[in-house]
Design brief:
Helices cover about 30% and strands about 15% of the residues. It contains eleven helices and twelve strands.
Length: about 350
C-alpha cells in the first residue's frame, strides 16, 4: 500500500473521532457516487450517513480503489456507497454444526472481528461462515472458542487438535521465513485488512508525512503485539535502534504513557485505538494521525503438518474469492462497521 495524503485533509481523522455525537440522517440507495472537487471519504460519509465517522463503510466497499490514498479521493472517481446496515442479525449458517469433521478455532475479546458477545460473533466470524458456504463442494464445519489466544498456535493448531484457526496476522514471511508463524503455518488470502494508525496528543506537533518523521521517536505498542511492521526491510527501526519501542501492559497503559509524555505516539489498529480512547474518556485529548503506519491482513491459518492443509486452504481461498466478488462480502463488513461505530457513540 502506498498511501498519499494532502495537507488539506489535516484534522479530518481527528474530526472523525471528535464527532461521536453525530446522528445519521441521509438516505442511501447503494448508488454510485461521482466524487467532486474537495470531497474526502469523511465528507462523503457525512453526506451519505450524516456521520463522518462511518468513513470505513466507504473504504471497505471501495478498498481496491482507495488503497493508494485511503482518506483522499480524486474528482471523477466513482465510489460505491453501501447502505447503512439496518439489521444486526447474523446470517444463517446451515453448514455450521457441532462436532463436524472440519474444526475451526477462534477466540473472543477481539471485537469487531471475533467475539462471542458481538452480533454474529464478529465480522471475521461471519466472513468465515460465508466463505465456507462459497467453497467448491462445501462441507460442514464447527467453530470452537478458546479465549486464551496463547494456546491457539501451540499446542492446539500445531498439534492438529483443530484444522484451521482465525483471525491471525501474517508477518513478512519472504523476509522472515524463520518466524514462528511463517515456519509452522500456511496462511489464507486476507479476510479483511486493517489500518494501523499512530495516536498522538492533540497539539503535540507530531506529524507523519514520511518514515523519516518517525526516526528518534518513542512509540508504544502493548506487550505481545506484533512488531514486524516496525522492522520490515525498508525500515529496520528496531534492529538498527532508529526508534524506541515501549511495550506497556495493555492499550490503556500505552495511552497513559502518552498522556504522561513518556512516549511520542501509540500505535494500534484504528478500531482498538478508537475503542480505547472512548473507554478512557480521552476524546479530543488523543487524536489519530491520518497516514497509516501499516496495513495488516487478518487470515485463516493451518499447520504445515496437516496432511490436508493445502487442500483445505485452496478450497477456503476459492470460497473467499467468490465471496469477495459478491455483494454479501460488503454487506457483512458494512454491517459490522456500523455496529462498531454505533456502539462507540452510545457508550
Amino acid at each position: 500500500m502506498r498511501p498519499i495524503w494532502r495537507k488539506a485533509a489535516a484534522g479530518l481523522v481527528a474530526a472523525l473521532f471528535a464527532s461521536l455525537g453525530a446522528q445519521a440522517s441521509a438516505q442511501c440507495a447503494n448508488d454510485a457516487y461521482l466524487v467532486k472537487a474537495g470531497d474526502t471519504v469523511f465528507s462523503i460519509a457525512e453526506g451519505a450517513y450524516g456521520d463522518p465517522e462511518k468513513w470505513t463503510l466507504i473504504y471497505y466497499a471501495n478498498e481496491a480503489k482507495l488503497q493508494a490514498s485511503v482518506f483522499q479521493v480524486a474528482p471523477g472517481d466513482v465510489l460505491k456507497i453501501p447502505c447503512e446496515p439496518g439489521s444486526q442479525q447474523a446470517d444463517a449458517t446451515p453448514l455450521r454444526v457441532d462436532n463436524a469433521e472440519l474444526k475451526l478455532l477462534t477466540g473472543s475479546n477481539y471485537a469487531p472481528f471475533t467475539d462471542r458477545e458481538w452480533p454474529g460473533q464478529g465480522m471475521v466470524t461471519e466472513l468465515v461462515n460465508a466463505a465456507m458456504e462459497a467453497t467448491p463442494a462445501p462441507v460442514t464445519y464447527s467453530i470452537d472458542w478458546e479465549d486464551d489466544w496463547s494456546k491457539h498456535l501451540f499446542p492446539k493448531l500445531d498439534a492438529k487438535e483443530f484444522d484451521m484457526g482465525f483471525p491471525w496476522l501474517k508477518p513478512d514471511c519472504d523476509q522472515t521465513p524463520d518466524d514462528e508463524r511463517c515456519a509452522n503455518f500456511h496462511f489464507s488470502d486476507p479476510l479483511v485488512e486493517i489500518l494501523i494508525l499512530l495516536f498522538v496528543r492533540e497539539g503535540s506537533g507530531f506529524t507523519y508525512e514520511s518514515d523519516a518523521d518517525i526516526l528518534g521517536k518513542r512509540l508504544c505498542r502493548p506487550k505481545g503485539y506484533f512488531t514486524h511492521d516496525l522492522d520490515r526491510p525498508d525500515r529496520q527501526w528496531l534492529s538498527q535502534g532508529k526508534i524506541t519501542l515501549v511495550q506497556a501492559d495493555d492499550p490503556e497503559a500505552c495511552f497513559r504513557e502518552l498522556q504522561a509524555g513518556n512516549v511520542d505516539a501509540v500505535t494500534l489498529n484504528v478500531f482498538l485505538g478508537a475503542e480505547t480512547i472512548n473507554t478512557m474518556g480521552l476524546r479530543g485529548q488523543i487524536v489519530p494521525l491520518e497516514k497509516p503506519l501499516s496495513v495488516e491482513g487478518l487470515h485463516v491459518i493451518i499447520s504445515k503438518k496437516h496432511w490436508r492443509g493445502t487442500t483445505f486452504l485452496y478450497r477456503f481461498n476459492a470460497g473467499l474469492a467468490a465471496l469477495k466478488e459478491s455483494d454479501r462480502y460488503s454487506e457483512i463488513v458494512s454491517k459490522h462497521l456500523g455496529v462498531f461505530w454505533d456502539q462507540i457513540r452510545t457508550n
